[in-house]
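Progress note, sequence design subtask.
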């Protein structure tokens, strides 16, 4: 039985090499997309309001710089611009200055911008598409919230034990569905920050019709001391998602690493950390679904089940041998 289970696991792993690599269909449409990395103040002691408005102003300034290059003929006009998670922590509906800053950036580039924003009533972490001439429109709300970051589990109980729950006084409200933003021929599916690590969330965007994926993220807190482990891990996940879904992926980060990834996982463009940058690349808009998206997670479940079965069989066999040994000694 252990040998059979081992052979089955090996067979499932090797079977991954049998299907042909997804080939781009002739005539696949393409589009130029841009990611903006506005950077944030590299300090912990700025007042929250100042930090929030500064971050938004930074992303607007970077977008306006890209717009100037487009007008000068030094860069192609993108079909879509993607800002990162928390590019504004203040709800533009409640702060006219923030609304005006974003609106000016949209007007300057004259293209839709997916803005990472925090919305109130209820509190949500969202990606909102801003359109030239009409302002904020469709919204994707983050579905997989970060425990102890965006939501405090067992808040009532923990409040009796520690005052740290006050650091997040109100839980974020999760979204409940995939959202595909329609921008011309682009069908954009969005995930926010560590949602990229969840198979079902990314694949749900593809099943909903996305031909391009975005990962909006804010890695500033993890990089304050110079470490890049979290952002590089997240970038590696995004590259896996590109290959898995055969979709181009745009990673937009406040502080980096931001990147535009080809469907085969290659980095078409990327930034370093803690600097302002704008990225552009022409990417294919693939619409067919991969084998990975069609079969879902059952191969993983099968491998785990067979592995557990083999371990249980081995443990039972070892237990039976130990029970027989005293009988032989008699």
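Output:
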């Amino acid at each position: 039985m252990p040998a059979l289970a081992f052979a089955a696991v090996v067979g499932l792993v090797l079977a991954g090499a049998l299907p042909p690599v997804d080939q781009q269909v002739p005539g696949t449409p393409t589009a130029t997309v841009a990611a903006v990395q506005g950077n944030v103040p590299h300090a912990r002691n700025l007042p929250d309001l100042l930090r929030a408005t500064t971050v938004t102003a930074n992303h607007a300034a970077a977008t306006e710089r890209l717009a100037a290059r487009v007008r000068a003929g030094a860069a192609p006009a993108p079909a879509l611009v993607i800002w990162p998670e928390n590019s504004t922590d203040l709800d533009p509906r409640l702060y006219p200055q923030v609304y005006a800053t974003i609106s000016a950036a949209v007007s300057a580039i004259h293209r839709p911008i997916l803005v990472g924003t925090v919305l109130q009533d209820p509190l949500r972490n969202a990606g909102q598409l801003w359109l030239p001439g009409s302002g904020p429109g469709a919204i994707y709300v983050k579905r997989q919230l970060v425990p102890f970051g965006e939501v405090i589990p067992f808040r009532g109980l923990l409040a009796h034990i520690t005052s740290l729950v006050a650091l997040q006084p109100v839980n974020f409200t999760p979204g409940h569905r995939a959202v595909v933003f329609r921008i011309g021929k682009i069908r954009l599916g969005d995930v926010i920050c560590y949602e990229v690590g969840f198979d079902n969330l990314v694949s749900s965007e593809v099943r909903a019709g996305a031909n391009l994926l975005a990962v909006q993220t804010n890695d500033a807190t993890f990089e304050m001391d110079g470490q890049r482990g979290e952002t590089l891990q997240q970038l590696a996940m995004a590259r896996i998602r590109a290959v898995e879904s055969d979709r181009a992926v745009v990673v937009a980060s406040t502080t980096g690493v931001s990147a535009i990834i080809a469907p085969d996982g290659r980095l078409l463009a990327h930034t370093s950390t803690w600097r302002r940058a704008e990225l552009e690349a022409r990417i294919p808009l693939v619409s067919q679904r991969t084998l990975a998206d069609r079969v879902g997670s059952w191969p993983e479940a099968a491998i785990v089940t067979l592995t557990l079965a083999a371990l249980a069989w081995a443990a039972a066999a070892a237990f039976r041998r130990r029970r027989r040994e005293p009988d032989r000694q008699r």
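The helical segments are 2-15, 48-71, 96-109, 155-158, 199-207, 229-245, 291-295, 298-329. Work on this subtask will continue into the next period as scheduled.
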